[in-house]
Amino acid sequence: xxxxxxxxxxxxxxxxxxxxxxxFGGLTLTRRLRAAPVQVTLLxxxxxxxxxxxxxxxxxxxxxxxxxxxxxxxxLRGQGNAxxxxxxxxxxxxxxxxxxxxxxDIAYDRLVxxxxxxxxxxxxxxxxxxxxxxxxxxxxxxxxxxxLAAFERAATTADPQQRRRFxxxxxxxxxxxxxxxxxxxxxxxxxxxxxxxxxEPLDRIDTELLEAAPSLLGSFAPSLQRAAKRTLERxxxxxxxxxxxxxxxxxxxLVLGDGATVEAATVVWTAGVKASPAGELLGxxxxxxxxxxxxxxxxVVGVSDVYAIxxxxxxxxxxxxxxxxxxxxIQQGEHVARQLTAEATGQPGPGPFRxxxxxxxxxxxxxxxxxxxxxLRFSGFIGWAMWLVVHLVQIIGFRNRxxxxxxxxxxxxxxxxxxxxxxxxxxxxxxxxxP
Amino acid sequence: xxxxxxxxxxxxxxxxxxxxxxxFGGLTLTRRLRAAPVQVTLLxxxxxxxxxxxxxxxxxxxxxxxxxxxxxxxxLRGQGNAxxxxxxxxxxxxxxxxxxxxxxDIAYDRLVxxxxxxxxxxxxxxxxxxxxxxxxxxxxxxxxxxxLAAFERAATTADPQQRRRFxxxxxxxxxxxxxxxxxxxxxxxxxxxxxxxxxEPLDRIDTELLEAAPSLLGSFAPSLQRAAKRTLERxxxxxxxxxxxxxxxxxxxLVLGDGATVEAATVVWTAGVKASPAGELLGxxxxxxxxxxxxxxxxVVGVSDVYAIxxxxxxxxxxxxxxxxxxxxIQQGEHVARQLTAEATGQPGPGPFRxxxxxxxxxxxxxxxxxxxxxLRFSGFIGWAMWLVVHLVQIIGFRNRxxxxxxxxxxxxxxxxxxxxxxxxxxxxxxxxxP
Lengths: 435, 435
Hints:
Radius of gyration of chain A: 23 Å
Low-confidence stretches of chain A: 1-10
Mean pLDDT of chain A: 89
Strand order of the largest sheet of chain A: 5-2-1-9-20
Distance between the termini of chain A: 39 Å
Number of helices of chain A: 13
Oligomer: homodimer
Largest interface: A-B, 78 and 76 residues
């Protein structure tokens, strides 16, 4: 069937590949196709690739947006067979090999969906409305502005109970994001803001980490889970396991499963993700978490010439489905690139996809991290140092690496977070808006 | 009269000084009072000091916000006699020595208004609604997001006339901000975006600088005006003098004084500023441009114990009123600090304020600037190098200087502007907002 498409679908003799999503999977795929005789269009609703593992550092006022976000056009400079389009995917007409987007129709020979995942509040409207997610760059900026404004309010609030509310940050969900985020907020509060608010009537700043399950960091070994919990508590984070959250009232009242309440002006929701709704456009039955079922070549089951990779794909086969993390997305992008290159050059394609787990890691603020690589377990300073090096290497662009390193070193030595600005783009009422 | 206040107004024996505005004037005043036996409250609606001379570099995607904005609490760390309050001034009750703010009342013994200036569209509602001002950090972020989105739209617009509109930036007003801004946009377009959009159907990117007066840079010597105009034109900016703007239609149609039109999706308004409306709260007759009339000790004429400095003050006396620039604001802040220190320590105060003009400068992008220092005139590369050094030295904080320098060097060598992200904080519908 693919051979039949080859004869009709090519553009100037070249296979037209449309990649939706400039995250880890889509961007890896696009770059790996740079020497292949194909024409790649990369579509994303943002004009940048986001290094999501460090998103919480933007939210906690350590890094600037441009240090973890890199313009896609800058990354693709010099790749003559690729072009970027900023727009949203609206519909997939697989039979016609065509998609509808917010900037018009795009025809393709091969479509690769790599649209990632979105925040999941499990249908809880009060969480949806009042809690802060932490999935996108705009989320991190909104959270940073909010939490800094809350401390300013605390400094001028006479009523002790009201003030406690402004001083409390509740992070719901103790996966890697929740652990890293609560650890970083605790340090922002204890090490940086305490100095900024010297002489003000702040009682203490309270970071709570709430988790429904009986342990934190479900994907890590029990010894590392315990190490992470101890470290968080030493840093002043209140870790409350087996503590499901039922509702968040608008005034900042978090209602727990047992009816008890937590008063927190800032509630961060990191308790769940689900596949991007882009998968729904395919008209196939989706797997758990809304993921698109694909075979071991990431081909969507039942839809010709459409692939799905990364968080939004659930591989049916050996070892699958894979965790919703960057490494499977990157490896799947590489695999699909090999397939398309083989197809375009008439070579035999690769065997089925096999995920190589290179390990996972998380950081819990200054001097403390955990890492699990095969059977090896690292915690404390060594885990933290490994985390630093791995993340610094992965950030795109030498300049970004340099500036992130300066900011980290600055914060480490001086306890002075550079980016604690309450700043956002002004909204405008006029109709002179793009798009 | 001041002595009478001293006996009744002190707080723990110390004079309570309220400074409104953390710009160049207000911040200089606050820091200069650090050794004085006074209690300073610094009020600003933002939590940062903004280095406004480089605001256009945020708008043109060269610098990140945190490189030109510095948290006030970070600046005042270690100054035990100063506290910061984030809030807006709502009313002044001078007879009661009390102000109303968005975070409650504040009593004072001496009030110093240093609220700066705001954009001035001279009562033109169509400009007010559709043009982009460039006075605040949020303005710069909104302009950056808009202009980058306009280029993305241009890349996917088939109709040539429509595309030209998206490719056109019109800067209205050829003062230093307009000249620097149009020069920087022209370079962003020609040197950076051209590479990002290689292979796209962009015709050319068009930067127009429109000025109602017959010359640009009114405050500079004619020889420097001519040098600036030549440089702008060499960089591809269309400089149109004696070209007043009448109206801006929402679709991006700029109507000129003679009825001709310019189609531009991005219109930047840098043609006027006026004093902050905070001056209106004093109930005195204001000078031209809404400035508060003050004597040669920056005391508001007719209102006891209230001073005004910087852009919002018009000094009546030798050499006044002074230009609405950073240097007069800084020098006036220093002068009022000397007065208040003298008063608090019972020493004789300084003589009348005299402005020392240390020169003015402007940059017109890579390798070209103009500077006028006393009778000396510099243009070209020397003017640019002087501009670089002076601005780098003035930026607050060593870390910021270092990172700004890296970004400048990066852009200079590689033509790769680091910050060209279309990013803003997500607005939220919930009511869990601060404040």
